[in-house]
Amino acid sequence: MRYLTSVLVVLSTALWLGGLVALFVLALAVFRHSGLDRETAGRATSAMFVVFGRAQLAVGAVALIAAFLAYLPGKGRASVALFAILALGVVGAIVFNMVIVPKMEAMRMAGESQSQTFRTWHGYSMMLLTAMTATLLVAALVVPAICRGLLGHRSQAST
């Protein structure tokens, strides 16, 4: 069970952080290197943000469950810290999905993607996703301690 928990912690954290980084890189690539006009590029990236927003809720839930399972064997501080960090990330994901994406999608569908209000919300989106990326980077730095704790207990029990 400890090995499975370690795998879940590593994969969910890496997948979530990697997804955030990929989202930045791919959205930038669509606008700068695709050759698409701004409106078409906006529709394409909009779809990416909507799909990623939903996916990160699922990955965040798995990450929280994995962090909780990591807490059970040793009840260590690192697992509590990881759970708190991931919970902060999940709050960001919820805000992104329930507030930012619907607002920006409504404005985009209404043809207001060039408005100052849209640019303001785009700024909020960028700030939130950047903060979430930094949060997940911190979580990724805690993951090795979690794995050492989980797998170290296993090797000590067998000696």
Summarize the structure.
This protein is mostly helical and 159 residues long. It contains four helices and no strands. The protein has one domain.
Describe the structure.
- With 159 residues, the protein is mainly alpha-helical.
- It has one domain (2-152).
- The chain is built from 4 helices and no strands.
- It has helices at residues 2-33, 38-74, 77-109, 116-157.
- The longest helix has 42 residues, at 116-157.
Topology:
Layout: H1 2-33, H2 38-74, H3 77-109, H4 116-157
Percentage of residues assigned to helices? over 70%
What's the end-to-end separation, in Å?
18 Å
| Total number of beta strands | 0
Main sheet characteristics: none
Structural class from helices and strands? mainly alpha
Global Rg: 19 Å
